[in-house]
């Protein structure tokens, strides 16, 4: 019995040491190395949640080891036999009150951060935001810069310390856009235009990917977001315009076909291409869903047309 008791006594320290060892490796995880204000707040939320979980986990593990050792069956035990015991008010208060308090704290913190980190909420900055229109394809990413009239495939260039307004949709199966060091993921869906604000606080090259299974080559849907000073970003825009061919409608139709792609760049984009993609699946005058405040003039026009048609139908129905 003694060797078994000795092993049980070592169980708790071993589990705690293993947990500590695993947590020390979190420093290499990208989500724990934020490079922007959104990712920094999300890291804080993760740490708070982890701390509250540890407050529960450590006592539970300690009590488990203690109960197993203290109340094991022994031949020489003189503990009273109480088969009808079923309630202890103090213990009931402890094991109900502590979880309720922790859950309440976690709920308050989560609600606060959820509102603060609403994806479509603009980032407060003195600098003008940059708009990038993102389209997930099979199996590649198309990034359009409507204000600069350029586009890239499978790589991003952004100015540091400038809010970036990502408008996102899909012309393929649903996917999820994610740059871990800048912020959390957001889904891209056909017929919808979502909005996500991110910002890079310092120059760097940040890994990005599709975080949703989308078929055979989903693992190839990766890209790098390069944050550079504003003057370098402006020089890059001019370089793209002077060394690349424009993206045509025919070129996009070819690009959207299933298959992987190497890095590409285009010196021009068809007018309204992003909104054509969003409204591609409009049927019978029904407007597409525009989510989280995405700006979509064509989508709004489609919505107005649909409302007008519905109003006319109602009047006609009333006349009959």
UniProtKB/TrEMBL annotation:
Residues 288-320 are annotated as: Disordered. It is a multi-pass membrane protein. It catalyses: 2 a quinol + O2 = 2 a quinone + 2 H2O. Residues 23-121 form the Cytochrome oxidase subunit II transmembrane region profile domain. The keyword Calcium does not apply. It is an enzyme of class 1 (oxidoreductase). Residues 308-320 have a biased composition (Basic and acidic residues). One of its GO terms (biological process) is ATP synthesis coupled electron transport. Residues 288-297 have a biased composition (Low complexity). It is found in: Cell membrane. Residues 127-239 form the Cytochrome oxidase subunit II copper A binding domain. Keywords: Cell membrane, Copper, Electron transport, Lipoprotein, Membrane, Metal-binding, Oxidoreductase, Palmitate, Respiratory chain, Signal, Transmembrane, Transmembrane helix, Transport. Belongs to the cytochrome c oxidase subunit 2 family. This is Quinol oxidase subunit 2. It comes from Paenibacillus antri.
